[in-house]
Amino acid sequence: MSALTDKIGWNFDNTYSHLPELLMTKINPIPVKNPSLILLNDSLAKQLDLNFTSQDKSYLSSLFSGNVLPHGSDCIAQAYAGHQFGHFAMLGDGRAVLLGEHLTNEKKRLIYNLKVLVGHHIQGMVMVELLLARC
């Protein structure tokens, strides 16, 4: 945790990390070499009650790549119960790393995932996708 993440406004409520181990595994994101921020959606950040304005681009690159974890996050990978297995399975890099559930000031719950799209390279860089989904 960094003192910088405290100023952003993260408000995590990590209900998924309290599930039985059969349904998830505690895991941290795999570090990314030389991450680079291409675009930050400031209007979305404002809607989510997150303030990234005092953070520099290098720090944000580390934050959104998973090299630095947000204050209050609790990283897990969820088990997958696909029809082809008939049981729960941990699939490794095929699943996103769930950092937690961020609550906005209006108590809207959003899931914060990081997923590295393995095999999708853009000019030699691994593309990192930030996923926010409303529960």
CA-atom Rg in angstroms: 15 Å
Biggest pleated-sheet summary: 3 strands, antiparallel
What proportion of the residues form beta strands (DSSP E)? 25-35%
Overall outline: globular
Low-confidence stretches: 118-135
Tally of structural domains:
1
Let me know the number of strands. 5
Strand order of the largest sheet: 3-4-5
The string of secondary-structure elements, in order, is: HEHHEEEE
Describe what you observe in this structure.
With 135 residues, the chain is an alpha+beta fold. The chain has one domain. Helix content is 14%, strand content 27%. The protein has three helices and five strands, in the order αβααββββ. The protein has helices spanning 3-6, 42-47, 57-65, and strands at 24-26, 76-78, 97-103, 109-122, 125-134. The strands form two sheets. Strands 3-4-5 form a three-stranded antiparallel sheet, with no helix packed on it. It has a two-stranded antiparallel sheet with strand order 1-2. A hairpin with a 2-residue loop joins strand 4 and strand 5 (125-134).
